[in-house]
């Protein structure tokens, strides 16, 4: 069953080579996402892919981190490399509303 998370907030971050909550080193250019606490499920989704859509653009990213400070428990935090694909103005836009679902 496919569940879409509609109009949720997405932000971006730079892991700068640090180890994510799933245990792997993460780079700013990686196609990765940190899930908010509402979808974290104790790390059960580590390594799973989600599709994120924003204004007609989409990207598939791998769950590799936890975002305890996300905009709401169901928000997501994309790596800088990932958010740049769907929002070329991400730095000016800041928080964007996206639709995402597990692939």
Automatic annotation (TrEMBL):
<dbReference type="InterPro" id="IPR036908">
    <property type="entry name" value="RlpA-like_sf"/>
</dbReference>
<protein>
    <submittedName>
        <fullName>RlpA-like double-psi beta-barrel-protein domain-containing protein-containing protein</fullName>
    </submittedName>
</protein>
<feature type="domain" description="RlpA-like protein double-psi beta-barrel">
    <location>
        <begin position="6"/>
        <end position="98"/>
    </location>
</feature>
<dbReference type="InterPro" id="IPR009009">
    <property type="entry name" value="RlpA-like_DPBB"/>
</dbReference>
<dbReference type="Pfam" id="PF03330">
    <property type="entry name" value="DPBB_1"/>
</dbReference>
<keyword id="KW-0732">Signal</keyword>
<dbReference type="InterPro" id="IPR051477">
    <property type="entry name" value="Expansin_CellWall"/>
</dbReference>
């Amino acid at each position: 069953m496919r569940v879409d998370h509609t109009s949720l907030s997405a932000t971006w971050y730079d892991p700068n080579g640090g180890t994510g909550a799933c245990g792997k080193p993460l780079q700013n250019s990686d196609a990765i996402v940190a899930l908010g606490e509402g979808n974290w499920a104790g790390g059960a989704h580590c390594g799973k892919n989600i599709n994120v859509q924003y204004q007609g653009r989409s990207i598939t990213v791998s769950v590799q981190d936890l975002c305890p400070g996300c905009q709401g428990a169901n928000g997501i935090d994309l790596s800088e490399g990932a958010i740049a694909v769907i929002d070329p103005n991400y730095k000016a836009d800041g928080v964007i509303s996206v639709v995402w679902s597990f692939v």
